[in-house]
Amino acid sequence: MTQLTLGKALNAGLRRAMQDDEKVVLLGEDIGTLGGVFRITDGLKGEFGAQRVIDTPLAESGIVGAAVGLAFRGYRPVVEIQFDGFIYPAFDQIVSQVAKLHYRTQGRVKMPITIRVPWAGGIGAAEHHSESPEAYFVHTAGLRVIAVSDPQDAYRCLRQAIASDDPVLFFEPKRLYHHKGEVELDAPLADAPPMGLARVLRSGTDATVITYGAMVHTALDAAAAAEDEGISLEVVDLRSLSPVDYETVTASVRRTGRVVVAHEASREAGVGAEIIASITEYCFEYLEAPPLRVTGHDIPYPPAKMERFHLPDLDRILDAVDRVLDRPNSLTKTTEGQS
């Protein structure tokens, strides 16, 4: 086992994928000589050359369009979108071409494209640098959508995404790039859990907290704080947002009977809404209380000094837990006092 940051684990995953398959090529803005804004591709150009680590113009539609052409020719392109909010110029290419060409050609053309997206908030950056656009892509048939939360999972899932014949949107929580953890670099990829499976990271009996990305750590902190009050929370890391591993999710809900879903993205038509709708459909007779969402607000991403009010935190998750457990809490008391 090797101690790595999440960023270094991603770098190691890219290196291993390029060593294993000469058809793996990287494309993106400043990913070569600079090594990327977050240095995720640092050193790879020197190791593999400028023909496999390609510095592109500042044109996301062109970058993804070039990846489509490379996939047609049998390559496995890995695209870096420099920041989450920069993905929108490539939206047409992703949803109209990348997601549909396999279906459109009746399976004759594969699109083994991995689109890496430094994603979400928590680093004090402005809008277009701290956004959570995952719901747009979860809604698009033909795409896999993955969100990792720790170095080991980042390393394994990135290699699995690159090896997959499906196009993958690979969301990397940028505020965790310096988060450290143990990574097993030499374990066979075939022995790793499939990237489509959710993980129960903490077992509990009173309520299930379902989340993904950086919010996984907030949920685990909330579970530890709740334990001090005698509340047992189960924490589920979705990992795959499309498709969702509902077998793991529903098994947890049936054990606890209560659900809180947390994510940084806006509430309206977000991933949490679909998760709760499906839980209600599959587990209605097991539910002891209506499921609740803890999300970002339905606003453009706020200025850096205001983001702490926008991002879900431990207190907001615990307030939702109190509500699904029908426990008195400070927020309810304050609201009642005002009324």
Topology at a glance:
Layout: E1 2-5, H1 6-20, E2 24-28, H2 44-48, E3 53-55, H3 60-72, E4 76-80, H4 91-98, H5 101-104, E5 114-119, H6 134-138, E6 144-147, H7 151-163, E7 168-173, E8 180-183, E9 199-202, E10 207-211, H8 215-227, E11 233-237, E12 240-242, H9 246-256, E13 259-266, H10 271-283, E14 292-296, H11 307-310, H12 314-324, H13 330-338
Parallel strand pairs: 2-3, 2-4, 4-5, 5-7, 6-7, 10-11, 10-13, 13-14
Antiparallel strand pairs: 1-8, 6-12, 9-11
Helix pairs in contact: 1-7, 3-4, 8-12, 9-10
Describe the structure.
By secondary structure, the protein is an alpha/beta fold. 37% of the residues lie in helices and 20% in strands. It is built from 13 helices and 14 strands. It has a seven-stranded mixed sheet with strand order 3-2-4-5-7-6-12, with helices on both faces. A five-stranded mixed sheet has the order 9-11-10-13-14, with helices on both faces. Strand 2, helix 2 and strand 3 form a beta-alpha-beta unit. The chain is globular, with a radius of gyration of 20 Å.
Strand content: 15-25%
**Uncertain stretches of 5 or more adjacent residues:** 330-339
Radius of gyration: 20 Å
* Mean of residue pLDDT values: 95
Number of DSSP helical runs? 13
- Which structural class is indicated by helix and strand composition? alpha/beta
Q: For the largest sheet, list the strands in their spatial order.
A: 3-2-4-5-7-6-12
Q: What is the 3D shape? A: globular
Helix content: 25-40%
| Secondary-structure element order, N to C | EHEHEHEHHEHEHEEEEHEEHEHEHHH
**What summary fits the major beta sheet?**
7 strands, mixed
Whole-Å distance between the termini? 56 Å
Total E-strand runs? 14
